[in-house]
């Protein structure tokens, strides 16, 4: 049985999906994009700031399940431009301890919802 997880600090789903689902001890967090739910604005002045907003949104959803970045075991990163890889990593790295960083893949895609520059999903285990 799964539990639906929702944070009103993170953007509402853009379509027919939940922000996250909890199955036993495992949390599946949907791809987050750089919308600041408190203002409704899309943070796209730089890929660094956009990545920060995405990570903050992931953090809000994790917190709604009483979890933190410490419990994240896997991230999936979707980017519009792989040339942003180093900039994205510089921000992403601030959310994890290097020695316990989650598994991850990063892929460049043709388009993302709302034409954002980055979307990140994650899996966390309590
Ligand atoms: C933004 C998303 N997570 C989606 O469209 O699936």
TrEMBL record:
> InterPro entries under this entry?
RidA, RutC-like_sf, YjgF/YER057c/UK114
Supply the Gene3D superfamilies for this chain. Answer: RutC-like (3.30.1330.40)
List the keywords (alphabetical): Hydrolase
In terms of domain of life, where is this protein from?
Bacteria
Q: Which residues form a coiled coil?
A: none
Protein family according to the UniProt entry: Belongs to the RutC family.
Q: List the NCBIfam families hit by this protein, alphabetically.
A: Rid family detoxifying hydrolase
What protein name applies here?
A: Rid family detoxifying hydrolase
What is the protein's species of origin? Flammeovirga kamogawensis
């Amino acid at each position: 049985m799964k539990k639906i997880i929702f944070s009103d600090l993170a953007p509402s789903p853009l379509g027919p999906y939940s922000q996250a689902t909890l199955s036993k001890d495992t949390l599946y967090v949907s791809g987050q994009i750089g919308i600041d739910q408190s203002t409704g604005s899309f943070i796209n002045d730089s890929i660094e700031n956009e990545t920060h907003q995405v990570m903050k949104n992931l953090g809000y959803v994790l917190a709604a399940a009483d979890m933190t970045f410490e419990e994240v075991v896997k991230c999936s990163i979707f980017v519009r431009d792989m040339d942003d890889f180093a900039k994205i990593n510089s921000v992403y790295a601030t959310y994890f301890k290097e020695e316990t960083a989650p598994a991850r893949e990063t892929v460049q895609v043709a388009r993302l919802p709302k034409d954002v520059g980055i979307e990140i999903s994650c899996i966390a285990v309590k």
